[in-house]
Design brief:
The structure holds 2 protein chains of 2 kinds. Helix content of chain A is 27%, strand content 7%. By secondary structure, chain A is of the alpha+beta class. Chain A has a single domain, classed as Ubiquitin-like (UB roll), CATH 3.10.20.30. Chain A starts with 15 loop residues before the first helix and ends in a 10-residue tail after the last helix. Chain B is an alpha+beta fold. Chain B has a 5-stranded antiparallel beta sheet with strand order 4-5-10-6-7. A 4-stranded antiparallel beta sheet of chain B has the order 11-12-13-14. In chain B, strand 2, helix 2 and strand 3 form a beta-alpha-beta unit. The longest helix of chain B has 17 residues. The chains are: A alpha+beta, B alpha+beta. Chains A and B meet through strand 2 of A and helix 2 and helix 6 of B.
Chain lengths: 148, 275
Amino acid sequence: MNGTARTARAEPRTSLGEHLRTALGLTGTHLGCEQGDCGACAVLLDGEPVCSCLVLAVQADGCRVETVESLARGDDLGPAQRALLEEHGLQCGFCTPGLLMRMTHARRTGAPASDVLGGHLCRCTGYGGLRAAVERHCAVEARKEDQP
Amino acid sequence: MKPVAFDHVAPVDLAAALDLLAERGTRAAPLAGGQSLVPLLNLRRVRPDVVVDLNHVVGLAGVRVTAGEVRIGAMTRLRVLESHPDVVAALPVLATAASAVAHPHVRTRATLGGSLCHANPAAELPAAAVALDARLVLRHRGGARVVPAAEFFTGPHTTVLAPGELLTEVVVPRVPELRFGFAELARPGGSGYPLVVALLGVAVEGGVVVAARAAAGGVAPTPVRLPGVEAALPGRRCTADDLSAGLATAPVDHAAGHRDAVLRSLLRRITAGLE
């Protein structure tokens, strides 16, 4: 769990997202639609982006999970966070954690910016700032601060 | 919303999974990638006593290519399918169709078998399975049967799968003589299923179409072949203009209203790429 082994029991019906928020106290991940449409709950599971509302917590047993809490070092924001801040890519912040994890994954894997925004619903920005932030972020090759 | 409480069982061998499905019948829900089942659980539209998690069952994922066919394990993730070198080489249109499904963070988990068994009539992979004449291997405790894709789907979200049966493998014949194209009309702003999806393949000899294969999703309660289109194209020259002229007179057989217009438009778009 963000580089640290964590143990917590979960009922089978508990989603990974809910488990992160309630049992592990990591409330940075936001659960929106819980149907895989909005993208707010995206986290990295063994390095790949998933909707944490559509993975059962018990299925993540033994897996590496990365959430938005892993991106900043203390008060120093990570690169995806800085891009969103500088391009005004957020307002209320509800969709932000999922998008940040997709941006992080995209830069690590060299995925194009055009792959990132699909599947992430934002009701504040009109996507202008978001698109600018994602393009700025993905234009830079991955470096040490992008790795887990 | 929280799903109703259920037991979670994650067998590692297929026989154990089939035993569970046989014993629990309609009270058991097989869990593949979870991208269709878990929303239904969250909405409480599905209320199983036990979820049989297939993610640890050995041998259900992977791609094997032989001279005549491509055999794809039902638990093969779309992320793998869309970029698998053997699939891209032998069945490029299947890779394209897989890459058109939802979004990368859904395709990480989503599986070929899950998409087929969910049987959304507008989904990409059911239409591709019908277009490619795929055969579906359905196993149950003590036996198996093989069902052509065209007979697998019986209506929206319904298939011939019986309680206790599991789709384990999808066998796709290789048809190198057919060159396929794929097009869909996605719903703007939505991340769900497209409105209409179309696949069209042509075999060409000396610049003239000698055989055609066409299928569509979103225009009928199940994905369908388009025999009117398949009959109208042979004999046409393989140019965008001549293929479009053939399409213009072809009965589309199923679609009504605006979906008919969308399907024709998608087929025309494909012909431009087949030229």
